[in-house]
Amino acid sequence: MSEPLMPMIEIGQMIAEMGADSVYQCMQCGLCSGLCPWPKVDGPLNTRKLIRMGQMGLEGYESEDFLYACTTCSLCQNNCPRGVKIIDVIRLMRAIIAETGAIPGSLRPILGSVHSNGNPWSEDREKRSAWQAGLDVPVFDGSQEYFLFVCCTSCFDARSQKIAKTIVEVLNKAGVSYGVIGNEESCCGESIRKMGGEEQFMALAEKNINLWSEKGVKKIIVTSPHCLTTFKVDYPEMGAELEEVVHIGPFLKGLIDEGKLSIKGGSGQKIAYHDPCYLGRHNDIFDAPREVIGAVGGELTELAQKGKFSLCCGGGGGRLWMETVPEQRFSDTRVRQAVEAGAEVLATACPYCISLLEDSVKTTGHDDKLEIKDLSELVAGDL
Questions:
Q1: CB of 315 within 8 A of CB of 224?
Q2: Terminus of the chain with fewer CB atoms < 10 Å: N or C?
Q3: Does residue 15 carry a pLDDT above 90?
């Protein structure tokens, strides 16, 4: 049974004190709601109303569909004229709701799995390294330059495992000094925190930071932009001492520029690029992925919504594990945009995006016209 919420004024003060004091800078201009993709599909979210609810101490909170609709894509936050940290406000409202036990039922098993297994996929921790079978994957012992952190999705999801394997093959061909730690690793915690599991995130971060310190980790290559954001922004605030955190997309571009990968440049395919929210808007990485597409000889076909105004796939903020009715799936719209643009391949650089776009290309009946590929798969196919 969920606990009753504390008085509204106390909740409003708590949201501000927990780090989202910019909530009171909101002047209710409504630009956030105008930019948000949800109203365009008649969805449950009105961002302006949600922020007002935060100012008023969750007054009017009735539905988890409303609070947990946000994908934290940052389109609203990046364009807010008053600099309101909208994602932090929403995250902390969810944290307060989670404290009462009112977290959505579909997310409870996810939080439970991370607590028990160190991953959100309800898989045993001992299976985290199963994707490495048959591959030459070095174990990180402190002597290598980079620690390769493979996202939980790429460790356990069958489609995404192919990406992890491809990345290993490419790194090996390029002679990169790297290693993985394996089953001792735990989820980065990014999605858990966005779901409202604040304490659980802190515990995960502390465990990972201590592990890295023990192993001598200084530089990290990540396969997911969600991990990138967490390790670059959140972990240092908790004491992580890292020299470099780099996403595999820009890292591949660097390997190509340095001549460590012999690219043929003979793709010739029309390739559309989907900007992942957490690589683009959250980390300002837009050019490197497109340059990789150019390096493999692909004909870049830009989508209707691109770059800083790219359409979210719909998987952030915990939404990857929540049901969305077909007519409201952003990834379905994205697939249609790619087909309309004449693309043969829709490339991206995020495990969440890959998962949802793969599903949408099938459910929309375009799997015979459009391939979904990770940037690493484009590079591997052109070596």
A1: no
A2: N
A3: no
